[in-house]
Design brief:
The protein is an alpha/beta fold. About 40% of the residues lie in helices and about 10% in strands.
Length: about 575
């Protein structure tokens, strides 16, 4: 992230109160007999000023709730509410192109704030002003009602090491993950757990379309949001208008297989990061050999297992989670590098502690995103509940991909004990979609490996794929890469996409989100800048270009909160 623009992250995360959690790629599920749910038309939407004191208020967005069935099999029974926001179009009625629904990923990511994508200048050209931009919190998430939380202390400090270094560690994780699933079973709002599959969220998307009285839907999905797009297009192909898919989920892997695919991909991206650290030894002083830096990192995990740092708050899991963010995005590479360098060279672990959680206690509801992530992934599709198979597969993967394997396994392990039944995945197909679809991904995207984008391109004959060549950033569109962003603007303006070519590869090759060029760490930003309100932060911007840059940073902080 550009340090000059870091205030955007501060005001989004402080005021919005978003939850941070890990992502994994996903595939949804349903039984065939449920393919045609009972029709449901939501009551009218009543818009009002958001007045949240945060980003939505600062950009003049409106907010509302959409009432939907808890179960679409019984549409006239119990109802829940989906929180939505709107940034209205600025074009004439003649040029108006409808609504764009936006999802940041997850599952479980809060997308209420992403109506900001419609702010002038975020997307090149004037097309964004011809749409109403709709952010939403999926069912069970954030401002939607009810919102599910199971145990806010689950991601606190003093966790056992992810790797099963002893039988006691393995048993501790068994107890923790079983306990979390049990807490979810007894949490307020636990009735949701039987109704938070991807298909349920797709039904909600269709309800939002109907509530807004639109004949067709436009959609911009990041990460897991691309799976929502795939399943919506499979179920409602004739309602698809313009769909942008950034960092596409592989529908073949369901959840269990896709998680292991992530392990391999993250091994590659962290090696790229270690290479970047080595290339900038003059700044970070970690050495010039990437292999030596990697060994240094794994040695640090062993040391922290024996003796946690920063008053016992930083153990191997906290360090691993902070380093994981460098595998997702280039935006925070410098922040992680400076904190890690201070820890290794000076024994100062406060930076790592701050990047993990600032040492602050977990707040009520802070596990909402994680609870809803599991709610979807544990029930979307069939996966084994056998502990011996999980252990066998993780041991085998760890031999070739030690960086993430056991952390990823522990993150998903509550699915073994989840208190809601699994379903059969949807067979994704785009063959009935006859309008162009725009896909974007980077070559070494680890959270949703590039092979998934190629697979979905095969299944959607009308899709064209833009590749950020050799990039490692996940969900990185609208980052200022002109080649990519102009193509997005053109697509939203008139539906044009790069010409589809023959073969199993991308259709347009663009530069990736650039790696940062680190300089010696600047002095900390002044306190007033760090604590300024969104209104004040935008008011202080010296130009429209700087306002757009601030808001783009804020957008990517929202996405990072859904996919850290």
């Amino acid at each position: 992230m550009n340090r000059v623009l870091a205030a955007a992250a501060t005001f989004v995360l402080t005021v919005a109160g978003l939850t941070t959690f890990q992502t994994a790629t996903a595939s949804p599920a349903h039984h065939r007999r449920h393919h045609h749910p009972h029709p449901y038309t939501p009551p009218p939407v009543h818009w009002k000023a958001c007045n949240d004191g945060g980003l939505l208020d600062a950009i003049g967005a409106q907010c509302a709730m959409v009432k939907v069935p808890l179960s679409y099999r019984h549409p006239h029974k119990r109802k829940i509410e989906i929180a939505i926001s709107r940034l209205r179009h600025t074009s004439s009625r003649a040029r108006y192109q409808g609504v764009v629904l936006v999802n940041p990923g997850g599952p479980g990511g809060s997308g209420l704030y992403l109506s900001v994508l419609g702010y002038p200048g975020i997307i090149p050209g004037r097309a964004s002003g011809t749409y109403d931009w709709i952010g939403f919190d999926p069912r069970g998430v954030g401002a939607s009602v009810p919102s599910l939380s199971c145990d806010s202390r689950y991601f606190g400090y003093h966790r056992p090491r992810y790797e099963p270094t002893t039988a006691a560690v393995e048993q501790a994780w068994l107890n923790r993950t079983r306990g979390y699933a049990r807490d979810c079973k007894h949490a307020p709002g636990a009735r949701l757990l039987r109704h938070v599959r991807t298909t349920d969220n797709v039904h909600d998307m269709e309800s939002i379309r109907r509530a807004l009285h639109r004949r067709k839907l436009n959609f911009y999905g990041f990460s897991y949001g691309t799976y929502l797009a795939q399943v919506y297009a499979t179920r409602h192909p004739h309602q698809v208008r313009r769909f942008v898919l950034d960092s596409t989920v592989d529908p073949r892997g369901v959840w269990y297989g896709d998680n292991f695919a992530q392990d391999v991909a993250f091994q590659k991206t962290i090696e790229v990061y270690f290479g970047w650290l080595a290339a900038h030894d003059a700044v970070f002083h970690l050495g010039t050999d990437p292999a030596a830096i990697a060994k240094q990192y794994y040695d640090a995990l062993n040391t922290l297992e024996a003796t946690p740092a920063a008053g016992g708050t930083v153990g191997p899991d906290e360090l691993a989670d902070v380093m994981l963010s460098a595998g997702y995005y280039v935006y925070g590479w410098e922040d992680v590098a400076f904190a890690y360098s201070a820890a290794i060279n000076d024994g100062d672990w406060s930076g790592i502690q701050y990047l993990y959680g600032g040492g602050a206690p977990q707040t009520k509801g802070s596990d909402n995103g994680y609870a809803m992530y599991l709610g979807t992934t544990c029930t979307d599709a069939r996966m084994t509940r056998s502990g011996s198979i999980w252990r066998r597969d993780s041991d085998a993967m760890f031999l070739k991909a030690p960086f993430l394997t056991w952390g990823n396994t522990r993150f998903n392990q509550p699915c073994r004990f989840w208190p809601a039944r699994q379903h059969t995945r949807v067979h994704v197909t785009g063959r009935r979609v006859h309008v162009p679809v725009l896909m974007i991904d980077e070559t070494f995207d680890a959270a949703t490996p590039f092979s998934g984008s190629l697979e979905v391109r095969k299944r959607f004959p009308s899709a064209s794929l833009i590749e950020g060549v050799d990039g490692t950033t996940h969900a990185g569109s609208l980052s200022g890469v002109a080649c990519t962003d102009r193509a997005i603007g053109a697509y939203l303006a008139n539906g044009t996409v790069p010409r589809r070519t023959r073969g199993n590869h991308s259709d347009l090759q663009c530069p990736p989100v650039p790696q940062p060029d680190p300089q010696p760490e600047p002095p900390p930003a002044a306190a007033p800048q760090a604590t300024a309100s969104p209104h004040e932060t935008l008011r202080r911007a010296e130009s429209s270009t700087q306002r757009v840059a601030l808001l783009r940073d804020a957008i990517h902080e929202v996405i990072r909160s859904a996919n850290p």
